[in-house]
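Bug #77: duplicate submission created two jobs. Keeping one. Sequence:
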Amino acid sequence: MSADYEYVKFEARKLLAHCKIQAPPVYLSDICEHLNITLANHALGSRDAALMNSQLTDKVLIMVNPNKIRQRQRFSIAHEIGHYILEHPSVAFSGGDGYMQTPEEERQADIFAAELLMPERFLLHCWAIGKLDIQNVSRIFDVSKKAATTAVNFTYISHPELLDKQNRGYWEISYLLPINI
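Kept job's structure:
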């Protein structure tokens, strides 16, 4: 993963630490409150969510499409928080055309959202307790099966040592964290 993406993941982890989030699922309303971002339901057609950042009034609003499933709404809100934290342009739409965002900014916001909702250290804890599979990750983190699949696959790609059954006892102890799942 490029250094730019590591920076993106670092920013998500930093936000989780500032908000004192210690266990899944991540409550995005708490994060928005911490950031002074207003969340509102608004029919957005095919779009999932929109970030509105008024520099004149210092107000930040994330509008989320209530017609999308809850897990999609959660990922879209986290994605828009990513645009805000990463200081991408002030009007952004999640889903649809990605107004005013480059493909790279969209990728960064997706990586931020995934790390915010499914932090790597929480995924490693799931592995240590035998719950790093699509069904459990989807349920524990309140994310879609698609997002869970990507997270589980990426965890195993990033940590091939997890596949070594001979060393499982060592790795289980290494990844047990003080979180409740």
